């Protein structure tokens, strides 16, 4: 499918249902989106020591992310070069050597083939250098490790673009202290991965999809987190932004003006009062510390698979055109009081536990509806063509009221670019195969 085909499926105010349901398109996405762009793989705190590793995915490709024996971050396809078996079958660990359980081929954690059992059976022209684990290009920014198999991809910092400013703001709340990522909370739904990405910067659904959370906040007798979506959110100072390169943002921070307001507006948590009393007794800057138990009140979405929601990291993992895993990671912060980090951990009991099931139910119902072939189009035109509704700043960042769908309209332009350029690059590679130098 060339660019003209994508133009036929992506219109200014709508996209075609096939982008979510077509198996061929999904396969091309795994090659041209999750193969050509920078994909989030792991956080440095998950592999803190030399020889530590974590298994992950680059699209549907299993990979090993490792801090090798020279303290360098690497990613390699988790596929034995002998007969194709998965080499490393643990989620995390520490190893200088990876041994394939099938035939015992073993590889250094740099990817080099270290040895094969009974090597005299191999001829003299058997070159171990040829048979190491295939490397993935890796770069890291402030602890976030990304990988790509595209040698022509721009530097990671250029891919982040304007999203880098917001990632810095998310991290710099902690005065240089380091984020530590916890164990994953995994959820699977029957639907396409883009349904999550569409929703990640969607301020339109909150009042309706998360009504139970809003009602719980209302019962507390004062404004609580997200209850400000119950009024007309278009009249608020909140915004949705398109940051370029597929990245999007919801910024709720204008609702929080003074120290202590992040904490004050948080919904109830078990044990909250006890922890608050300890913090207020021990620390002079109690309001500032308690605010750091709460998320940054922005949803920062780095295309195609990394979402920073509150103080948590969410990763989108596509498996099939109609099956997606959402992986939530809690975060703690080195140097913050233990009570603050305990409260950060307990936020997992709030939105992921109570809010994400609302969203996943909608994703499954949307995917089911999108299988109806007689209804072809998805409307993405909210805010489009309304005078003075959107602004563009000097960075090229597009902003609008928080309920607008500008994030979907714009990230699909990056999707279209990657799908088109990826197809062209692969076609060029195929045409060169078998051509003598």
Structure described in brief:
It is built from 14 helices and 22 strands. The model has no long low-confidence stretch (mean pLDDT 91).
Percent helix range: 25-40%
Approximate strand percentage: 25-35%
The whole-angstrom Rg is 23 Å
The major pleated sheet works out as:
9 strands, antiparallel
- How many β-strand stretches? 22
Mean pLDDT: 91
From the spread of the alpha carbons, the general shape counts as: globular
Tell me the quaternary state.
Answer: single chain
Can you describe what's shown?
There is one protein chain. It is built from 14 helices and 22 strands. With 437 residues, it is α+β, with helices and mostly antiparallel strands. The longest helix has 27 residues, at 406-432. The strands form four sheets. A nine-stranded antiparallel beta sheet has the order 13-19-18-17-16-15-14-22-21, with helices on both faces. Strands 3-12-11-6-5-4-7 form a seven-stranded antiparallel beta sheet, with no helix packed on it. The chain has a three-stranded antiparallel beta sheet with strand order 1-2-20.
């Amino acid at each position: 499918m060339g660019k003209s085909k994508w133009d036929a499926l992506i219109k200014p105010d709508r996209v075609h249902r096939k982008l979510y349901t077509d198996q061929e398109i999904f396969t091309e996405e795994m090659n041209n989106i999750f193969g050509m762009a920078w994909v989030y793989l792991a956080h440095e705190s998950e592999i803190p020591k030399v020889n530590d590793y974590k298994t992950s995915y680059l699209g549907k490709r299993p990979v090993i992310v490792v801090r090798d024996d020279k303290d360098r971050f690497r990613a390699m396809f988790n596929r034995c070069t002998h007969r194709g078996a998965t080499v490393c079958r643990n989620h995390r660990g520490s190893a200088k050597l990876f041994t394939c359980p099938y035939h015992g081929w073993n590889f250094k954690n740099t990817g080099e083939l270290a040895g094969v059992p009974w090597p005299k059976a191999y001829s003299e022209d058997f070159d171990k250098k040829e048979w190491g684990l295939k490397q993935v290009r890796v770069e890291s920014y402030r602890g976030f490790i990304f990988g790509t198999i595209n040698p022509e991809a721009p530097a990671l910092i250029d891919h982040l673009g304007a999203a880098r400013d917001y990632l810095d703001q998310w991290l710099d709340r902690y005065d240089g202290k380091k984020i530590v990522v916890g164990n994953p909370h995994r959820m699977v739904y029957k639907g396409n991965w883009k349904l999550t990405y569409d929703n990640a910067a969607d301020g339109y659904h909150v009042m309706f999809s998360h009504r139970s959370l809003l009602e719980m906040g209302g019962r507390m007798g004062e404004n609580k987190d997200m209850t400000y979506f119950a009024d007309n959110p278009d009249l608020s100072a909140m915004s949705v932004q398109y940051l370029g390169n597929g990245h999007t943002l919801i910024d709720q921070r204008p609702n929080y003006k003074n120290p202590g307001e992040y904490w004050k507006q948080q919904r109830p948590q078990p044990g909250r009062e006890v922890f608050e009393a300890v913090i207020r007794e021990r620390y002079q800057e109690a309001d500032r510390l308690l605010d750091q138990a709460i998320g940054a009140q922005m949803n920062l979405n780095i295309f195609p698979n990394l979402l920073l929601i509150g103080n948590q990291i969410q990763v989108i993992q596509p498996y099939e055109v109609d099956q997606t895993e959402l992986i939530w990671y809690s975060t703690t912060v080195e140097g913050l009081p233990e009570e603050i980090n305990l409260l950060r951990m307990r936020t997992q009991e709030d939105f992921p536990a109570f809010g994400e099931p609302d969203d996943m139910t909608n994703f499954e119902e949307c995917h089911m509806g999108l299988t109806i072939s007689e209804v072809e189009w998805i409307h993405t035109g909210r805010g489009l063509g309304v005078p003075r509704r959107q602004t563009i700043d000097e960075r090229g960042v597009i902003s609008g009221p928080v309920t607008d769908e500008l994030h979907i309209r714009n990230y699909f332009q990056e999707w279209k670019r990657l799908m088109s350029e990826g197809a062209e690059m692969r076609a060029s590679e195929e045409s060169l195969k078998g051509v003598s130098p």
